Structures are given as C-alpha cells and as structure tokens.
Amino acid sequence: MATTRRTKTGAEEWKTAERAVRDNAAALRSMTTHTELYTWAKENKLATKRLFPPFKTELRKQLHIDYERLREQAVADRYAQLTAAAVDAPTIALCCAGDAEVSTFAVCDLEGGDPWYGDFHDEDPIYKEGDQITADISAASKAIYLAGQAREYAELEAINLVITTSNHELDADSLRKDAVRHRVLVSVEVTDDNPALAMCRDLPGFRTWREVSLTDLLEAADHTDVVVADEQSQNVAS
Known about the structure:
The protein is an alpha/beta fold. The protein is built from nine helices and five strands, in the order H-H-H-H-H-E-E-E-H-E-H-E-H-H. Strand 4, helix 7 and strand 5 form a beta-alpha-beta unit. Helix 1 (8-23) packs across helix 4 and helix 6 (132-154) crosses helix 9. The longest helix has 24 residues, at 214-237. It is globular. Residues 1-8 and 225-238 have low confidence and may be disordered.
C-alpha cells in the first residue's frame, strides 16, 4: 500500500499559515465576510493552492472562524437576491456537454447552432482529466459564462438560463456559485437528445465564445418570452 509522506515544504506551509493567523488575530477577528478574509490572504500572499487550505484551517482552529460557512451563507444570500431579480428577466436556452474520454466540451443553442467548443484548458478550474462529472460541470459553467456575457451586453440586472445536459448527476445546486457570480439564474433539463454531445468529438479544432452571437441568444430569448406570453393569454381567454 502506498503511503503519503509529509514533506518539508508542506510543514513549512502549515507553519506559515499558523504564524500568519496568530500574528494577525485581531485584524482577522474584525472581518465578517469571506471576501474580506480572502482579500487579506491575497494581499499577504496566502491565497495559493498550497497555502490557502491551511490558512482556512488555522482560522477555524485558532479563531473559530469558519471560512466555508461564511462563503456558503454569502452565496445563499446573493442567490436569493438573484432569484428575485430574475423574475421578469428573459430566458436563454443552451445545450452543453463535456467528454472526459477526449477532454473536450461544447456549448450550443437548442438546434446545435453557433457553438463554442474545444479542448479543456490545462488550467481549467473545474475539469479533472478523465472525470466525466467534472467535464459536464465545466461545460455547464461555460454555458453560464456565455449567458452572463449576454446579460452584460444587454445591460440586464439578471437573466435566466435553461441548460440542457445528458448527465443525470448535474443539477442547479452544483452550479450555484457560477450562477451567482455571473447573475444567471439556472435551471437544468436532462435529456439524451443533446446536440452538444456529438460536437465534443465531431467538430475539429476549437471555436471561442467570442465567435458566438450574443444578439442572437437574446433575440431567441425574447421570442421565447413572447411565445410563453401568448400561451398564457390563450389559456386566460379559454
């Protein structure tokens, strides 16, 4: 059985985090949000992959500050605000898929048009090589990003996004942080009829999100809203 050895570098990083929290306890105790704590860590060169985890642990051990709980509460509060803001916002519909066997993704409209596709970047913050669920979550995150770009282009406070995926493990909760970040209220539909699936293997090379027409996405959203409104009017009339 393989064993994990504690390295000198790891011990030094834990010591650095421990000392940083101890020596700045008063300042850290005065911070009430995870954003303040992260900003402080970044300014003090602790917001790295190897130093930030022990920093969060030392916050909890020494000062009883639960960074993850503070972040989760902030996301929940902002998500509630987003939900209220999106009530009258237009709705964009996008299909997305990731393929862990070939490390590619695709995002497109419901007919498979105007796609954004390519290989996962080596530094993709979500995708883990060979892992299908992270491939699909990363693809969905890209769909949220694209909807967020359309929202900014239209200067809207919020926008709705219906994501079509073929992964039954993917749900709106797993996308909540990205949804809040881009002011996109997400709902997820799971189906085998997903044009983005084949694109992960059939389309050569790559196509960036900057080649996608944001105006077409918004026009399709406006048309969807009109159809829904017409159906509601017919139901009232009947």
